[in-house]
Specification:
The chain is α/β, with parallel strands linked by helices. It contains ten helices and eight strands. It has an eight-stranded mixed β-sheet, sandwiched between helices.
């Protein structure tokens, strides 16, 4: 594995964790946890930023699609957060890894309490735990109403405050394409990006998953935050969790956002 990557933040989208029905994709989650645990055992510090609470909660409550009104979203998040952490704790425990839940809001990350978050995450990493971070959608009204895919932005902020080498965003697509590959099958994958230009922002589209909120636009915003603090970012396909091995083996995969122009 790459000697360069000593600490990474991995962001997992709803589409990686669930089937299109909204129900948990057990095989994907089990494989994801196994791969992350193996990488951690190699000596890499890992922070996991996870989506999926509202989607899982909606499925558990019998809803056919992501709710539109805020109170229902909050109710789904409350149910889904319990289920999500239950799953992670059980799965990571199989490999002797301690999982720790960290629920954040943008207000905690923008005022004097930010230092407490930094200290808490740092100490959890020192103890060898994997902090599992999610937006606190039960109380974060602004994020729920804005529907701007805050977990991509959240992941970038967490990568910066934990001094990560790289942010890896696992999505439902292989990376950033020159145009929408779902419309144009000849679309070419952009393997490396060193600047978030206006042209790139125009390429970005919406979320392909009905249960998630993030699209490529939110990922480009995340990349902008990461690159401004010299943190590399990658977008890879989360449908194959073993893609993470390729990242750490230094193979070309997905789209790399970096300030290194070489």
């Amino acid at each position: 594995m790459s000697d360069k990557l000593k600490r990474v933040v991995i962001k997992v989208g709803t589409s990686t964790l669930t089937h299109p029905s909204g129900q948990l994709n057990i095989r994907h989650v089990e494989e994801l946890v196994k791969v992350i645990s193996d990488i951690k055992n190699s000596g890499v510090d890992i922070v996991l930023v996870t989506s999926g609470a509202i989607g899982l909660g909606a499925a558990r409550l019998g809803l056919k699609e992501r709710p539109k009104d805020t109170p229902t979203k909050q109710a789904c998040a409350a149910v889904g957060q319990c289920e999500l952490m239950n799953i992670y704790e059980k799965q990571f425990n199989e490999y002797g890894i301690i999982a720790a839940q960290v629920l954040l809001t943008k207000f905690v990350l923008t005022d004097e309490r930010k230092e407490n978050v930094i200290n808490s995450l740092g100490r959890l990493i020192e103890f060898g735990a994997i902090p599992i971070v999610n937006e606190n959608d039960v109380v974060a009204i602004d994020e729920l109403e804005l529907e701007v895919g805050e977990n991509d932005t959240l992941a970038a902020i967490v990568a910066v405050i934990t001094n990560a080498d790289t942010l890896i965003i696992m999505s439902d697509i292989d990376g950033l394409y020159e145009c929408d590959p779902k419309i144009n099958h000849n679309a070419k994958l952009i393997s490396k990006i060193t600047e978030i230009s206006d042209e790139l922002l125009e390429i970005a589209g919406g979320s392909a998953s009905g249960l998630g909120t993030g699209g490529m636009a939110t990922k480009l915003r995340a990349a902008k935050i990461a690159l401004s603090e010299n943190v590399d970012m990658m977008i890879i396909n989360g449908k194959r969790p073993t893609n993470l091995y390729d990242v750490f083996d230094g193979k070309k995969i997905g789209t790399l956002f970096t300030t290194d122009k070489e």
